[in-house]
Design goal:
Elements: H1 16-27, E1 31-37, E2 40-45, H2 46-62, E3 70-74, H3 79-90, E4 94-98, H4 104-113, E5 118-121, H5 124-133, E6 142-145, E7 159-161, H6 162-175, H7 179-186, E8 192-197, E9 207-211, H8 212-226, E10 233-235, H9 243-256, E11 259-262, H10 269-276, E12 280-283, H11 285-301, H12 304-325, H13 332-352, E13 360-363, H14 370-378, E14 383-387, E15 397-398, E16 411-412, E17 417-420, E18 425-429, E19 436-437, H15 441-447, E20 454-462, E21 468-473, E22 478-479, E23 489-490, H16 492-500, E24 505-511, E25 518-524, H17 526-535, H18 543-548, H19 550-567, E26 578-583, H20 603-609, H21 611-618, E27 623-631, E28 637-645, E29 647-648
Parallel strand pairs: 1-11, 3-4, 3-5, 5-6, 6-7, 10-11, 12-13, 13-14, 25-26
Antiparallel strand pairs: 1-2, 8-9, 9-19, 14-15, 15-16, 17-18, 18-20, 20-21, 22-23, 24-25, 26-29, 27-28
Helix pairs in contact: 1-2, 1-3, 2-3, 2-6, 8-9, 11-17, 12-13, 12-14
């Protein structure tokens, strides 16, 4: 059943549901979304999706969901979860996506703060969380579920299946065929379209209210910038609660009409990526770091000839790969060597990564190390950086193809104005600016200046080409005090990203503000270091045992010293070379509040929790005992105890290596 709704055209009346109706009218038979289920790709056209959304919206209305109500969505990327967003928006309700790996207390905070009335859960795992919290959530009246496996004998009256809700909705549409069209017609571009919660790096998460107009305008600008169309394809695998996924997998798809592909599970993303071969790809730096680690492990396990070929042709790629892709002059010998490398190394590697058809790849959400960025571009992958926040619909700056630089995030996008405050903070005006923080008017007033500029909290500057360079979070940028480098700039995120380029380092936390020198905590990558240890017949019992090995400390020290050598050539940050380090005996974990759900370091919390280790590093001690409380996935608590070694790393004279 397809109801008629006025064509939104290119004017200012577009809403997400109106865009869906228009696609169903114009390109109804083209693929809109796919999902891999039991190893087989299932496809829904735009006309199919409209039919599904109409039935779901009608069914939700029978459950009492209406204008201004909030619908929570929790689960992996699934077509039905995306449809629930559009169905809620058609009714004037507001979808609130949640991180599917959030622990109960985190999820409960959002459900309470957003006053959620209806929740849509993907499967039994998420239903169990919601049922556990239900007595403490007075607003929550209904829990919908998609996957019925394991739920057959649940008898909670609040539980409703997706299929049953749609069945009731279709019965309503049979009685009232114009119901959906009337609901969509009532929607206005300035209505709140979605509520996305901030990561809560330094405080409790806040609900960012974004309008249809904001996301549609931003999506149109982004689609025009890269020339996306209905012929493009994207793999949707990042959390639906992240603003980047909402822009790339939802808003831009509804503007451009391209196909969104949902993987079978988190474990099959790489396989599904290779099968789909998307033309458009996006990932935060941690995903590109993990892919690079996998490549490194494969090469370490390869035979001597393959390792030699890889090293030889990667040297060629680093020398001229990015220049060739951007159309800059390259000598004939290098062109020939790169062409041969493309045949034997780069092409097969792009295919293994699922990036053979890629036209554009973006990374954002956090800074990416220049070395890691350069690695992908040298392979002929058009990876670019974008810059934005949840409060700006992830829309501030992008890099233009052919004009990509490793150390900037590009120029402001169409409609965006940018200025640098006296404090060095980046401030912006954007068509994607938030309407408000939900129920936090004081926070809204603090984030936006009286003359309408959003304060990003990032420190940066605009270079002579008009491109923005982000240094770090403004609150984290500091100075060394005392010692040989008194007053030297300290930018922890920049240093950490440089360290995380090494495949053996999964996470790093740098310290140095108001200190005489820079020190660091290291999390090793258990897969990469474990593979390295096995090739050397180095036995270990688990992460904690592996992290304590003297051989592993030597391996990490060599990585840090190589990074120090690179830092010594940076006139601004030469004083921030790592003097001392230790390897933590546990991985930093969002469940232990050490990272956000988007895996950003909670620096202040870590400094407080591990204060005894920081004091020991700066006191010059060779080791320090510590007992760390941890949370397990099943809710149990435990304690990890250990005596951690603290090791010195070699530093380099900035003058001697400046050339």
């Amino acid at each position: 059943m397809t109801a008629a709704v006025d064509d939104p055209g290119r004017d200012g009346d577009a809403t997400m549901p109106r865009l869906l109706v228009e696609h169903a009218r114009v390109r109804g038979r083209r693929a809109s979304i796919r999902e891999k289920d039991l190893g087989i790709w299932q496809t829904w056209t735009w006309a199919d999706v409209l039919s599904e959304v109409e039935a779901l919206a009608a069914g939700l209305s029978l459950l009492g969901l209406g204008r201004g109500d909030h619908l929570a969505i929790v689960g992996d990327n699934r077509p039905r979860l995306y449809w629930s967003m559009t169905a809620a928006q058609a009714l004037g309700a507001v979808p609130v996506p949640l991180y599917q790996d959030a622990i109960t207390s985190e999820m409960q905070f959002v459900l309470e703060d957003a006053e959620v009335r209806v929740a849509f859960a993907e499967d039994q795992e998420q239903v169990d969380k919601l049922l556990e919290m239900l007595p403490r959530l007075p607003h929550l009246t209904t829990i919908l579920y998609d996957d019925p496996r394991g739920l057959r004998h649940y008898d909670a009256p609040e539980l409703k299946s997706f299929d049953d809700v749609q069945r009731d909705g279709r019965a309503l549409l049979a009685r009232d065929p114009s119901f959906f069209a009337r609901q969509v017609a009532e929607g206005r571009p300035d209505d709140i379209a979605v509520m996305l919660y901030t990561s809560g790096t330094t405080s409790k998460p806040k609900g960012v209210c974004q309008t249809h107009r904001a996301f549609v305008d931003v999506a149109r600008g982004a689609v025009a910038f890269d020339g996306f169309s209905e012929r493009d394809e994207v793999l949707s695998y990042l959390p639906m609660a992240w603003v980047g996924d909402h822009l790339f997998s939802y808003a831009e798809a509804l503007v451009a009409g391209y196909c969104v592909n949902c993987p079978e599970s988190g474990d099959t993303v790489m396989t599904d990526l290779r099968e789909i071969g998307p033309t458009y790809y996006f990932a935060p730096p941690r995903v590109f770091e993990n892919l690079f680690t996998q490549v490194t492990i494969r090469m370490d396990d390869a035979g001597a000839v393959k390792r030699w070929l890889y090293r030889t042709f990667m040297d060629v790629a680093k020398r001229c790969g990015a220049d060739l892709m951007d159309g800059r002059p390259v000598g004939l010998a290098d062109r020939a060597a790169y062409a041969l490398g493309n045949l034997v190394i780069y092409g097969p590697l792009r295919n293994v990564l699922g990036m053979s058809r890629l036209r554009v790849a973006y990374t954002g959400g956090a800074a990416i190390g220049p070395d890691l960025f350069g690695f992908y571009r040298s392979l002929g992958i058009n990876i670019k950086q974008f810059y934005g926040q949840t409060e700006t619909c992830a829309y501030v700056c992008k890099q233009k193809s052919g004009e990509v630089r490793l150390d900037t995030v590009g120029r402001p996008m169409a409609g965006v104005s940018l200025r640098i405050a006296d404090s060095g903070e980046v401030q912006i005006r954007s068509p994607g600016l938030l309407k408000e923080y939900y129920r936090h008017p004081e926070a809204t007033a603090e984030a936006v200046t009286p003359d309408g500029w959003f304060m990003t909290g990032d420190a940066g500057f605009v270079d002579d080409r008009g491109e923005l360079k982000i240094i770090d979070r403004a609150k984290d940028v500091g100075r060394l005090r005392g010692g040989a480098h008194d007053g030297a700039l300290f930018a922890p995120q920049y240093i950490e990203n440089k360290l995380k380029f090494y495949p053996y380092i999964k996470e790093a936390v740098a310290f140095g503000h108001e200190r005489a020198q820079c020190c660091a905590f290291i999390n090793i990558d258990a897969t990469a270091v474990g593979n390295w240890a096995e090739r050397r017949n180095l036995a270990y019992a688990g992460y904690t045992d592996l992290a304590a090995k003297a051989e592993v400390y030597d391996l990490i020290r060599l990585c840090l010293e190589e990074a120090n050598l690179a830092l010594s050539r940076d006139t601004a940050l030469a004083g921030s070379q790592i003097r001392r380090f230790l390897i933590l005996n546990k991985e930093l974990d969002p469940d232990d509040d050490e990272l956000t759900r988007t895996r950003k370091v909670r620096r202040g919390f870590i400094a407080e929790k591990y204060g005894v280790l920081i004091d020991a590093m700066y006191a010059g001690r060779p080791s320090q005992a510590i007992a760390i409380d941890v949370k397990f996935e099943d809710g149990r608590r435990g304690r990890i105890e250990g005596d951690l070694r603290i090791v010195d790393a070699q530093t380099f004279d900035p003058v001697a290596h400046a050339a």
